[in-house]
Structure formats: structure tokens, C-alpha cells
Amino acid sequence: MITRQYKIFLKSSHLCLKKNLGNDYYSFLQELSAEGYKQIILPSNVLLDLMKNIFKSKKGIIKEIELLEDDDAYNDKIDKLLLETQEDRDNFVELFEELRYLSSDQNIEIRKIRFCYRNNGKLIELTLSINGLIEVLYGEAANVEDELEKMLKFIWNRMKNWV
Question: What is the domain partition of the chain in residue ranges?
């Protein structure tokens, strides 16, 4: 599957979205770092807020959640809750609360979330990682880029007081 990569950076106290135009990932990072762009880490609470927003407002489907901690018991529980949520959207509250508990009380961060939804009837599927990497798995370029800009504003509104 061919993916398109974007990355969220910080420059001049603002978040910026940059598209990788085919470079290998590390060359892409080096090039932008040389231009003054700084990498950021997206905290789990911001990822969770975005996941909740997409789930509710876009009727999104959460397809995968990967934790930074490689613990089989936690991963199995999250996978089970994720499957239950896919079968019945009412189970989202339990999934969300478990992830909130893991990130706040157990200090287990979310590595990445993969979700899909429709925007104007067109499917978008992407993965958002803790390091600000966005991999677009499916979606028309113009539609996706418009949605990514909206996500960037959503993330900025939750992080602007920290930077």
C-alpha cells in the first residue's frame, strides 16, 4: 500500500504541516531541521481528544491503537475494547476511559492511532503517531489535505499554551 507522509513540526511558535515528497524519512527530517523546523511530541491527551472528536463529529471508525509500552495485557485489553467499539459504538466510552486511565495513571503513552471516516462522502484513512507523523493510507489529496489542516488547528488549540 502506498502511503503519503506528512509531519507536524513547530516553527516560530506555530505548528506546521509538511509533506514528505518522496524522500526517505530521515532525509526529510534532516532537511526540515536545517530549515529551522522542530519536531514535536503529541501527548496522549491530545491524541485522545482528537480521536474522540473524529469518532463523534465525523462518525469515525477507530481501526487500531498502538501503545508505546509493549505490554501484552494492556494491548490485549485495548484490542478487545477496540473490537467491541467497532461492533457497537456505545462501547467507545469504555475504550476512551481505559486509554485515559492508562495515559494519566499508568504513564503509558499512545504510539499511534489509525482511523477512517468519510468527508463529503469520500473515504479518508490515516494513522497519527506520537511523533507527529501522519500516514495517509487512503483518500483524495485535496480532501485529505483540507482535513489535515483542520486536525492541525484542533491540535494547536490544545497545545498552544505549552509552547
Answer: 44-66+110-159
